[in-house]
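Supplementary Methods, section 5.1.

A reviewer requested that the exact input to the structure prediction be made available. We therefore reproduce it here, unchanged from the version used in the analyses.
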Amino acid sequence: MKTRILGLLGGIALLLLAGSAYAGGPGGPPPKPVKVFGTYGGTCINTSITFDGVNYAVLNNWTGHDNFGIYNGQRIDAYLMTPGTPCTAPDGTPGVSFVLEFAEFVNTYNFSNDQIWGYSVTGSICESNTTGSNGESNVYTILGGAGLFTGATGTVTIKQSNVVGTLYYAPYMPFPPYYLPQGSSPLATGLFCQVTGTATGTITP
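The structure derived from this sequence is encoded token-by-token as follows.
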């Protein structure tokens, strides 16, 4: 019996120690920075949203998992449409890079009110010249959040690989083939893609 009690107390102590890394209550220790690593998958689609009236944003929706739990997220990002330097797309084909104009995201954790949000003005995308493959890398500043993430700070780098296809409508060519120039279908109005990515950085909740 004594051994069971000691084991139970030891388990409680470990839980309390782990919890202290995420939040410091009134009079308690301040929250500690947490190194974050997560992966996610989802979709993206073009929108009519612009930050400057010129460059249209893409809407990303995803489900992922990191140190803080399972989350659903959304992001809108817009890139300057002036071609930059040559690059290599994730599938190995030659491409061209475009500089990020602005992006912002919100993640909602564990089916609760724990939300975190941030923005980015630092990053780029490499788009293949011949296929629908493209890859993004953007650095986000954490602006805060709700619940667990109220007052959160930090930086997170999101790297994402996309496969883009043109939207089609039957009886015209469906998806796949996943990449044809926009306008190849008489009724195509935009782009749709599947996405996978990683998020790494440091967050102080």
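Strands lie at 34-50, 56-66, 69-79, 86-88, 94-109, 114-128, 133-146, 153-166, 191-204. These observations are discussed further in the main text.
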